Amino acid sequence: MSTAREQPDPRATLRAGLPDRYLTADDIAEIFEVPLETVYQWRKKRTGPPGFRIGKHLRYDPADVHAYVSDRKNADRDAA
User: Fold this and answer.
1) pLDDT tens, position by position, for the chain (80 residues)?
2) Which residues does 36 contact at the CB level (< 8 Å), separation at least 6?
3) Is 65 in contact with 51 (CB distance < 8 Å)?
4) What is the CB neighbour count within 10 angstroms for residue 55?
5) CB atoms < 10 A from the CB of 57, how many?
């Protein structure tokens, strides 16, 4: 019997509603199915979802990620 708490799939959590935790860069890479380095490049170029630092750790607010996805969908729709 394992006492470790299993982490849910971040994509499923995001689809089901706002998770009760901030997302990590690894979560963002998994959600968007991109390499982790891409997430860091997005942050450097300010092109991806906005993140913030807690000490040395990079975190993303799920609400900001939802807003980023909505903005991208609307931009693509307007461009078509």
Assistant:
1) 555 566 666 666 566 666 678 999 999 999 999 999 999 999 999 999 999 999 999 999 998 998 999 999 898 778 76
2) 25, 26, 29
3) no
4) 6
5) 10
